[in-house]
Design brief:
Number of domains: 2
Strand content: under 5%
Structural class: mainly alpha
Distance between the termini: 80 Å
Oligomer: single chain
Number of strands: 0
CATH architecture of the largest domain: Orthogonal Bundle
Shape: globular
Helix content: 55-70%
Largest sheet: none
Radius of gyration: 38 Å
Length: 352
């Protein structure tokens, strides 16, 4: 050891200087277990600076949030529109249902409060009971069974189709949904007309059946199925796209039939979507007024659904108080239907 080497070792061992050692107390070992710290170097040597520590994320950093006045400002326009166009008419209709308000006469100028008389009158009216049953039949067969059944069938058959064929069929189905109801009703009146109607022309022989008079309820059911199937098909198509292709391929390889695949794989997977679609279709069909454009509620009240019944007593007879009471009853029925669907959906989620 030279004198210079000894002087450097003594300087490194002086107070304030750490001398790195290896695991055996000797010279530092680069590959040893201990960490090597840089030694202060004299002139002519290169010092190794210690790496700067990375800044730690501040757990208490402020998160950008919208204050309450700003949030209210964003929500206020939507709430205002809902209040003006939905809440106020509903409350006003409920108020009118408790009065004898009419379009003309003394009741129009000075309506009187009659309490629940209008509701009792509606429940005792045989035409109201008949309209309620017609509405439930119309909703069940044209909405739940017809639209959902045909919509799911089309979505299942077209799920693997690609190219212009699928696009053409989808356009044709969706056109029946986006065309205005008045135009569709005019087309169906021409289709079902007894003299020169398209349907009678397609049937062999000299057929002159007045379908809107002979089978009015069946006519509006088929009309509504044709009209609303596209909506159900779009919803079911989106639901089927969520199925993993491997599940269907496994069922195919194992030799499962189409019904077994639907029963054991498809239906359990899209049951939530089916309940949601059933709720939307049911409530939409229950409040539908379009059959009035086909039959006007006739013949002999055979197609008078509740929406047409309210129109007849409210606008036809000018009895706004009674018509508003029937509207409130329809609102309650809609709420009951919605609660039943929500209850079934909640029970399914609990079981799953």
């Amino acid at each position: 050891m030279t004198a210079d080497d000894g002087r450097r070792r003594d300087d490194a061992a002086a107070p304030g200087h750490d001398v790195p050692t290896g695991s055996d107390g000797g010279q530092p070992s680069p590959a040893g277990g201990g960490s090597v710290q840089p030694v202060l170097a004299d002139e002519g040597t290169t010092s190794v600076p210690e790496p700067e520590p990375r800044p730690k994320a501040d757990a208490t950093a402020e998160v950008a949030v919208i204050n309450k006045p700003t949030a209210i400002g964003f929500v206020a326009p939507a709430l205002g529109l809902i209040g003006v166009f939905m809440m106020f008419p509903a409350v006003w209709a409920l108020y009118l249902g408790l009065t004898n308000y009419r379009v003309t006469g003394t009741a129009a100028r000075e309506p009187e409060f009659v309490g629940t008389d209008n509701f009792t009158r509606a429940l005792e009216d045989p035409l109201f009971t008949s309209s309620l049953w017609i509405t439930l039949i119309f909703m069940a067969f044209s909405g739940v069974v017809g639209q959902m059944g045909l919509g799911f069938t089309l979505a299942w058959l077209f799920r693997r189709w690609r190219g212009w064929t699928r696009r053409t069929i989808e356009v044709l189905v969706i056109m029946s949904w986006i065309i205005p109801g008045s135009v569709v009703a005019f087309l169906w009146r021409a289709f079902l007309d007894g003299e020169g109607g398209t349907l009678n022309s397609l049937i062999p022989g000299d057929v002159t059946t007045e379908w809107l008079l002979r089978q009015p309820l069946l006519a509006i059911i088929v009309f509504n199925i044709w009209r609303g199937t596209a909506f159900a098909m779009l919803l079911f198509d989106a639901a089927l796209n969520t199925l993993p292709p491997s599940h269907l391929e496994t069922a195919k390889v194992s030799g499962a039939s189409t019904w077994q695949t639907l029963r054991d794989i498809v239906f359990p997977a899209v049951r939530g979507h089916m309940l949601t679609t059933a709720l939307l279709v049911s409530m939409w069909t229950f409040n539908l007024f379009t059959p009035f454009l086909l039959t006007g509620g006739g013949p002999n009240y055979q197609t008078e659904v509740l929406a047409i019944y309210v129109y007849r007593v409210g606008f036809g007879q000018g009895d706004f108080g009674f018509g508003s009471a029937v509207s409130a009853v329809m609102l309650v029925i809609n709420l009951i239907i919605a609660l039943v669907y929500f209850r079934v959906l909640r029970d399914r989620r609990k079981k799953s």
